[in-house]
Design a protein that fits this description.
This protein is an alpha/beta fold and 457 residues long. It has 13 helices and 13 strands.
């Protein structure tokens, strides 16, 4: 058992709350002390709600004392990405334009966590409008850094959430993923991070969703146990969200998989892969084969150009829609001004072309998954780079196409680079196969554990 309470996973915290050997308030104090010690080097938070968290932890203390916890995450500290609304807390979206916005309602997954007693620590730092190019570095909230090397990025746009979990600022973070924004930060910080199937996690009462159906909410954690537990709480349909109705099962974790047909895709199109990433992910594929699965190396059986041609139109049109009626000139980053100007050149027909291209991507994936159970790729094509710089284009090559397909994608830590930087491999499944990926990740974690590694920060 660790001597550092802030290093305990959510499942261990909850077990100790139940047996009375630890209270939620004591756990919160340990985490807040850890944040005070380490966050100045990382800048993971947009806002830390110490008062609100203290009140919530005290309420959880009383419930455990009465033998009436609300659920398996009652009293567990969690962080929320600052583009997901939390009632009463500012939600700036990483932008000067939203500094004064304070929502009055929780977005659906937050409401579900809160109903189960989770202690919300605060809002984690994000790229402006969550449309960054691999780093979190904003005028309003500064630069978020990687706990494994504070000169480097923790990824984007859930960079603050990934840095927080990797550093022990609570065992669970809630993030969003519209093109890799959970999976790539998870890869850079040594975490499991799930981009759920479109509709798996219902959404309501949130900010404008810039990237249409491609943008989803999901969890990041250090262990598969914690990730699975969080998904079990935030998943499920909502009448007001049509996308969430009819998502296929299973809706809980199946038995350990056997003999899966796995396609390993080491490269996509013309994009290079950093050598340490390529070597680590190839080794992960070999390890999956050693677990009894049938692994074949090949090319992605989907036309990546359908995504790459039309993705910029989706992003630019979505940002223009989200900022309509606001005076944005001179108040947003240069790359977002360029997107707004691009939006003026996009016709309705262009936008429909983009949506139809995504439908074709979905159809091609459906055909591919007749032959394969899981597709495996690197999560990020590059190792982390300077935290103040945009990433190289190849860092994002493997993830956005999964969003266009509406599919589940799960980052799993694999062997680190020679200098100790985390690297992750992406597991991709058919629409609705989120829990199959979790079962496979659990099997991999049991054979090749990673959670014992901690950054020195």
């Amino acid at each position: 058992m660790t001597d550092n309470i802030w290093q305990l996973p959510a499942t261990a915290l909850a077990a100790r709350f139940r047996d009375g050997s630890l209270t939620p308030s004591a756990a919160l104090r340990a985490v807040l002390d850890r944040i005070a010690a380490a966050n100045p080097a990382l800048n993971a938070f947009a806002i830390l709600d110490e008062a609100g968290a203290t009140e919530a932890a005290a309420a959880a203390d009383a419930r455990y004392a009465a033998g009436k916890p609300l659920g398996p995450l009652d009293g567990v500290p969690v962080t929320i990405k600052d583009n997901i609304t939390v009632a009463g807390l500012p939600c700036a979206w990483g932008s000067e334009l939203y500094l004064d916005y304070v929502p009055t309602a929780d977005e659906t997954p937050v409401a579900r966590l809160r109903a189960g007693g989770a202690v919300i620590l605060g809002k984690t730092n994000v790229s402006e409008f969550t449309l960054g190019r691999g780093n979190v570095d904003t005028k309003s909230f500064g630069t978020t850094r990687n706990p494994w090397n504070t000169a480097l990025t923790s990824g984007a746009s859930t960079g603050g959430g990934a840095a927080s979990v990797a550093s022990g600022f609570g065992p669970i973070a809630l993030g969003t993923d519209g093109g890799g924004s959970i999976r790539r930060p998870a890869s850079h910080c040594g975490l499991v991070g799930l981009k759920p199937s479109t509709g798996r996690v219902a959404r309501r009462n949130g900010l404008p969703i810039i990237l249409d159906d491609a943008e989803v909410i999901g969890p990041l954690a250090r262990t598969v146990d914690d990730l699975a537990l969080t998904l079990s709480i935030i998943q499920g349909p909502l009448d007001e969200d049509r996308l969430s109705i009819g998502v296929p099962g299973p809706h809980e974790e199946p038995p350990p998989p056997k003999g899966l047909r796995i396609l390993y895709v080491p490269r996509i199109a013309q994009w290079q892969v950093d050598a340490p990433v390529a070597e680590s992910c190839a080794e992960a594929a070999r390890k999956l084969a050693a677990l009894g699965h049938h692994v074949t190396e090949g090319v992605l059986p989907v036309d990546i150009s359908l995504f790459e041609k039309h993705w910029p139109s989706i992003g630019a049109a979505g940002l223009s829609w989200a900022l309509r009626g606001r005076e944005w000139r001179g108040k947003i980053g240069a790359i977002y001004e360029e997107m707004m100007e691009r939006a003026e050149t996009i016709s309705a027909a262009d936008y429909i072309d983009a949506l139809n291209a995504f439908r074709e991507v979905q159809a091609q994936f459906a055909v591919a998954f007749r032959d394969w159970d899981v597709i495996v790729t690197p999560s990020a094509g590059a190792l982390p780079w300077d935290a103040t710089k945009f990433g190289p284009p190849h860092h994002r090559a493997f993830t956005g196409i999964v969003n266009a397909g509406g599919l589940p994608g799960l980052n799993v830590p694999c062997d680190p680079s020679p200098e100790g930087l985390p690297i992750g491999v992406q597991l991709v499944g058919p629409f609705g196969a989120d829990w199959l990926l979790i079962a496979l990740a659990r099997q991999y974690e049991a054979a090749y554990p990673w959670a014992q590694r901690w950054p020195a920060v």
